[in-house]
TrEMBL record:
It comes from Alishewanella agri BL06. Keywords: Chaperone, Cytoplasm, Isomerase, Rotamase. GO terms for cellular component: cytoplasm. This is Peptidyl-prolyl cis-trans isomerase. Its EC number is 5.2.1.8. It is found in: Cytoplasm. Residues 18-82 form the PPIase FKBP-type domain. Also involved in hydrogenase metallocenter assembly, probably by participating in the nickel insertion step. This function in hydrogenase biosynthesis requires chaperone activity and the presence of the metal-binding domain, but not PPIase activity.
Length: 171
């Protein structure tokens, strides 16, 4: 989206609540790059609606299209510390994401708090032991971000609580 012109002044939109933000990111830890949106479409989110890590969203506040920056988050500000007591037994029929399971695979399980990502530790005929820690728990993470676009959210996006369009939620 082109910047707005007002009385011959260029107005650049900053990231604030109810702004739709499109960005690329590269995520790294001490061992190197873990993932990057540059291999696919950029991400799109509605700022101020708890759709990402709070410290990451706070770092994006006030940025504009074209801004690039890095932020490093300690485990407590990212996906939490690893908990050794986070192994649970679940019925295999509740695991989503594959037909056959092996240790180390990532699955999704529906819980009372919504979908949760788990890692298979041990699998039997009917039950599996799963690690409920997030796969990135316990890691210090560095996000390299490039803000591509910032625009005002539509009334529908605000009502739905998420951005619409490529990289956002599709209806």
């Amino acid at each position: 989206m082109a910047p707005l012109l007002s009385a011959n002044r260029l107005i650049i939109m900053q990231i604030t609540n109810n702004a739709v933000v499109q960005f690329h990111y590269t995520l790294s830890d001490a061992s190197g790059e873990l993932e990057s949106s540059r291999k696919a479409a950029p991400l799109l989110y509605l700022h101020g609606h708890n759709q990402m890590l709070p410290k990451l969203e706070a770092a994006l506040e006030g940025k504009t299209a074209g801004d690039t920056f890095e932020i490093t988050l300690a485990p407590v500000d990212a996906y939490g510390e690893r908990r050794d007591d986070a192994i649970q037994s679940v019925q295999v029929k509740h695991l989503q994401g594959a037909k056959k399971w092996k240790p180390g695979m990532v699955a999704w399980v529906n819980t009372d708090q919504g979908e949760r990502q788990v890692t298979i530790v041990k699998v039997g005929m009917f039950k599996a032991d799963v690690d409920t820690n997030h796969p990135l728990a316990g890691k210090t993470l560095t996000f390299a971000l490039e803000v591509l676009n910032v625009r005002e959210a539509t009334a529908e996006e605000i009502a739905h609580g998420h951005a619409h369009g490529e990289g956002g939620h599709q209806h």
